[in-house]
Amino acid sequence: MPGLAPLEIRQQFPLFFHHPELAYLDNAATTQKPRMVVEALTAFYEKQNANIHRGIYGLSARATQQYEQVRAKIAEWLGAAGPGNIVFTSGTTAGINLVARSFLEPRLHAGDEVLITAMEHHANLIPWQMACRRKGAKLCVIPMSRAGELDMGAFREMLSGRVKMLAVTQVSNTLGTINPVEEMIGLAQRKGIPVLVDGAQSAAHFAVNVGAWGVDFFAFSGHKLYGPTGIGILYGKEEHLYAMEPANFGGDMVRNVTFEETTFAPPPQRFEAGTTHIAGVIGLGSAVDFIRQLDTPAVQAHLKELGQYARALLAEIPGLHFVGEAHQSSAIVSFVLDKAHPHDVATFLSAENIAVRAGHHCTQPIMDFFGIPGTTRASFAIYNSREEVERLAAQLREIQKFFA
Ligand code: PLP
Question: What architecture is the 6-30+295-403 domain classified under in CATH?
């Protein structure tokens, strides 16, 4: 296998020309953008800008065509049946909220249950919690071990006839755990339970095939896969999308409007009320082109190697404890240092041009589970190198000595 050349890839990311010394290890929060994505955004605004769908003139027709081509491209990339399964949203959060509100709530009743896992991001927790609260249903949490692995035995037992939805993250943004989502989808669907997979941390680096998985919903954000902020995707099975009422109302999502009544456009248009982030869609299309030109097995091998290398070097630092040590884990490494608060660790690292994230990572229940206020998290992407991992480990050693 040829392997990835992170330094060559790094040259495709303009931000690193402005910050040549920066070790950017906060990719789980957002990734940097390759030149082709930045240029696609600029080119759209410079040469192509017009509102879509309603314009008769050439610019608008071309903008519409570009926009819809991205929908088709993403459908193909995700293994969806067609573009009609792809809803443009503002991100993972918006996609999950839409499913909770428009799909789940109308079919949720008092006494029903919704299953999530102990390692969900708040975006894949609160929308379900709110739906349960409004309907008198119960939010049930699949437990995990101290290593950050789901208890699959408990999960199987929780799959009762009362469960109306399962929502699970493919990769934990805090622990790095890769969950066995395909197995979970199969087990849930055998009981007729629809499944949403949160792909925020997986879409960039894992081969996703929603069609082969048979998953009901899959949500992700463009900005975590080298694309723009403010744009994301909700994949939904056709029959579900047709059964769902829109959550936002306005222009571009209707068939016929009178003062008495409105009929809605078919999906996905009915979920895209108002002027959407058109340039963001174009930029997301470019990000998908960027990812598709990479060798996916090489990307996965590179990230796995970086994650393992980081864990091996950090494990040698006295007083450093990993938070999340799942057997199957991605290139996200969370840890705490004895005596040093995660925010202090991140501040010290920042002074050495190493960008990491510190805090609860929008997963407060995980912090409660481990009895800690937060972690320091290093998360890697295709442009990161072993040398950056070594810099991180060397600085952590210094920090640990300082606080000892
Ligand atoms: N789910 C997971 C696992 C995440 O890591 C994140 C963001 O960090 C989200 C959901 C929310 O994504 P966004 O803020 O782009 O909507």
Answer: Alpha-Beta Complex (3.90)
Catalytic hit among 72, 362, 367, 372? 362
> 93: Cβ below 6 Å to ligand 1?
yes
| Ligand 1 centroid from CA 200, angstroms | 5
* Interior/surface letters 74-104, b for 16+ CB within 10 angstroms, e for the rest: bbebbebeebbbbbbbbbbbbbbbbbbbbbb
Supply the pLDDT for residue 404. Answer: 82
Q: Looking at residue 205, what is its pLDDT?
A: 87
Atom of ligand 1 lying closest to residue 198 CA: 1
Query: What one-letter code names the amino acid at 308?
Result: Q
* Ligand 1 lined by 173 (C-beta under 6 Å): yes
132 is catalytic: no
Give residue 97 CA to ligand 1 midpoint distance, Å. Answer: 12
Q: Which segments in the chain show pLDDT lower than 70?
A: 1-2
- For the chain, give the number of residues: 404
Ligand 1 midpoint to CA 98 (Å):
15
CA dist list (Å): 231 to 265, 278, 281, 343: 21, 9, 7, 29
Domain boundaries, the chain: 6-30+295-403, 38-292
The domain 38-292 having CATH identifier 3.40.50.300: the answer here is no
The verdict on the CB of residue 124 being under 6 Å from ligand 1 is yes
Q: Whole-model pTM above 0.90?
A: yes
